[in-house]
Amino acid sequence: MTAVPDDPKPPPRPPAPLADRYDPRQAEDTWYGVWEERGYFRADPFSKGKPYCIVIPPPNVTGSLHIGHALNNTLQDILVRWKRMEGFNVLWQPGMDHAGIATQVVVERQLAAEGTTRQALGREAFVQRVWKWKEESGGTIIRQLKRLGASCDWERERFTMDPGLSAAVREVFVRLWEEGLIYQGEYIVNWCLRCQTVLSDLEVEYEERAAELYYIRYGPLSLATVRPETKLGDTALAVNPKDRRYAKYVGKELEIPSVDGTIRMKVVADAAVDPKFGTGVIKVTPAHDPTDFEIGRRHGLEVRQVIGFDGKMNQRAGKYAGLDRFEARQRIVEDMTGLGLIEKVEPYQHRVGTCYRCKTVVEPLVSKQWYVRMKPLAERAAKAVRDGRTRIVPRTWLKTYYWWLDNIRDWCISRQLWWGHRLPVWYCDAEGSIHVSREDLAECPSCHGPLRRDEDVLDTWFSSGLWPFSTLGWPRDTPELKTFYPTSCLVTGFDILFFWVARMMMMGLHFMGEVPFRDVYIHALVRDAEGQKMSKSKGNVVDPLEVMERYGTDALRFTLAALAAQGRDIRLSNERIEGYRNFANKLWNAARFVLSNLEGYRPALARKAPAPLAERWIRSRLVRTVGAARKSLAAYRFNDAAGVIYQFLWHEFCDWYLEWSKLTLYRGDDPAARARTQAALVEVLETTLRLLHPFMPFITEEVWQRFPKGRGAPASIMIARFPRVRRRDLDPAAEAAMAPIMAVVSAVRNLRSELQIPPSRTLTAIVRPPAGTVAATFLETAAAVAALTRAEIQVDPAATRPPHSLLAIADGCEVYVPMEGLVDVEAERGRLSRELRRVEEDLGRTEAKLAREDFRQRAPAEVVAREEAKGVEQRALRAKLREGLERLDALAGR
RNA sequence: AGGGACGUAGCUCAGUGGGAGAGCGCCUGUCUGACGCACAGGAGGUCGGCGGUUCGAAACCGCCCGUCCCUACCA
What we know:
Elements: H1 24-37, E1 51-55, H2 67-85, E2 89-93, E3 95-96, H3 100-113, H4 118-121, H5 123-137, H6 140-148, E4 158-159, H7 163-178, E5 182-192, E6 197-199, E7 204-218, E8 221-225, E9 236-239, E10 253-258, E11 261-269, E12 281-284, H8 290-299, H9 325-338, E13 342-355, E14 363-372, H10 375-386, E15 391-393, H11 397-406, E16 411-412, E17 414-415, E18 425-428, E19 433-436, E20 452-453, E21 457-458, H12 460-464, H13 467-470, H14 479-484, E22 487-493, H15 497-512, E23 517-523, E24 526-527, H16 544-551, H17 553-563, E25 570-571, H18 574-595, H19 603-606, H20 613-634, H21 638-667, H22 671-692, H23 697-704, H24 732-754, E26 763-768, H25 773-789, E27 791-795, E28 805-810, E29 813-818, H26 825-843, H27 845-857, H28 860-868, H29 872-891
Parallel strand pairs: 1-2, 3-4, 9-11, 15-23, 22-23, 24-25, 26-27
Antiparallel strand pairs: 5-6, 5-14, 7-8, 7-13, 9-12, 10-11, 14-16, 17-21, 18-19, 18-20, 26-29, 28-29
Helix pairs in contact: 1-23, 10-11, 10-15, 16-17, 17-18, 17-21, 18-21, 18-22, 20-21, 20-22, 20-24, 21-22, 22-23, 24-25, 26-29
The structure holds one RNA strand of 75 nucleotides.
């Protein structure tokens, strides 16, 4: 049990009888408030119980709940509610991310709509404006998570920019600097012109775009490029060192007539050049292309920047100065065409980098930025997974994880934004020194002169990378850290495996000396019914709030869990949700049935009757279901867990046991047997409710409150005990005994349906069980079988097949249904004959004749074997023919 | 270019060595005292193709065809 004391207050409403229909909204509003108020979500680091902790992937502060959040948080809530019911000391740590660039883009758009800019506002006012926006809209997603039923400890809500987490960020930066793992350097970076900031490699998304490949004459050589405008920044030509065609030019300086007069250009040999692409010659523009930058470094080439940070050609571009980069391309191509320098133009599919937030085409530019040295951190993160200290589920993601860590490049952490953690870096211009400090500095520590603070802020993932320990109080030494770190499980989508998961691994190992989580469960993406990625621009987003409104939160949660098969994306459709809404309805009505049949219920009396077979069966099935569900949950197989519970409740409990119980409840005259049945119904359904609670928290609570419970029972299903399995509760004998009985019931129903005998009409069925115990169970259950089949059942181990009867074989039992009085024999013969004639036509005259001979002359087993040898279609027709002939024989009394 | 997945009933998908399954849809019947958001019955599948391993393959291996995703500095 959790440490939470049961609330002495009575439940908010007297347990009135269940309404005709389940009203999700009402139950949701009622119970979430009760749970929260009673402190069931609250975690206590000093509480007893094995700790179980999940940190929420912090949603963006300006975000609102989309279907991906719904899936992610439903799965976390299932785990957390389950563990809580198991008696773990559970913390689900909530919070939000300031989401630097994303949030800044949103607020900038607002400003644009007001006709102003952040520059006009100034840094301080702008940041204030973002805070204000955060206060206004920041709580939206939290309210929506509550609507989803998320049982986070809201009193511990954290924000990546609150004072505690800011202290953690500052501490980490300073330590990494002191350890030499943070450095400043001038490299080529991805520059977003709109956001006016550098982006990390991960923040660049590539898109296929139609482009043109220009073949340009370069003196004696020619080369291909898609970016002629960068030509003005060329400082060399390069060829592959093994390319014999151009060997004679390597090391030479060529005179090249061009749009800006004749220029001199050296030819270098570099392995990065692919001799098979284009002409095998490239122009080297170190300032505007990552590959060229590398080549430039290797050969000591000048970095000649011709495009500015505003995306316009700069002074060095001569007559093109001031033009936008794409305008400049046009103009240069025109000019070169005029000079006869363009040899040809080919259409070309080009991958172009864009900003992951605003989709602007990224410009590679050289700039001074801050980096974290990743190699040493990455090695430990990979090793921790190789050693099994953190388990990644499903394992298909392992390769991806290793690949990235093994090929990692240094992480550019500075951003030219205003919203975020400002770098704790100060420059003393007088002595040219750099100071990194935990406390804000007012003057230079060495010369006491004035300081200038670095303008940049940190990449937003820098702070979220600390999330598993910063939220628990680090760098202070807190009881929360002691109890809950390493956390138990991280539940997240694969899209942030590198952005976030890998970085948490690195940071956690480095600063805590231990992995941040034992398990990482990576779930799929939710797509629309057509398998398309949901996006606002496509207009195919499913709004979880609308779904909850229409079908109820529990239906949405169960749907997501039931579809969360490992390694595959989820296609969400209304039909699917409707099906699980119906499941909730089924549960509701089963509960209504049980509760409305509790008249005179006395559990003590129940013990005076022996357990009948059906009860032993359903109890054993329940235990198996509990076992399977537990096993699936432990393996993060949410779909399997949901599936077995669904199957059990609907198709075993409702379809069989509940129907079976009606005989005792409605027609029985034995009070002890009646009490026994009532107890079984109550206990089995009550257990199922607890099993189902993590998936469907609201309806299970609403129903559970109405169930009769013993003294000292918990006040809420939330803190009730999750069902467990004891081996001795299994009853394989009962399950085995029920199998032939259920098979006979189905067989009789089947015959009735085939003979088109209305359900209202009683028929007779003679059951001939195989010798042994089965006969006894049939005698014991004959009344129930009769009720379920609406047939008069005669059980006779020595019965022979009567004339004019149909035969069915069900799990070793023979079932005979005499047709006399049920069927107009002549009419039925006519009908069958006509049907068989059609089958024979389909089969073909010759084949039909052969088939008839087979049936007459061969043993049944041989006939079936001969059918097997035929094609699919023939086989089916022959089987149809055979069955028809058999039935005709039966009608004829043979 | 490299890596990863997926192809099973009309649709969406479970199912990792011995019974081909679920939900929805479809057909037939049912005013059965929990539920028509239901009940009962049924039709429908050479498990993408070919080859191999195995006593036995939807599953394991190889190749091919088709779809998708991720990663990467071919200008």
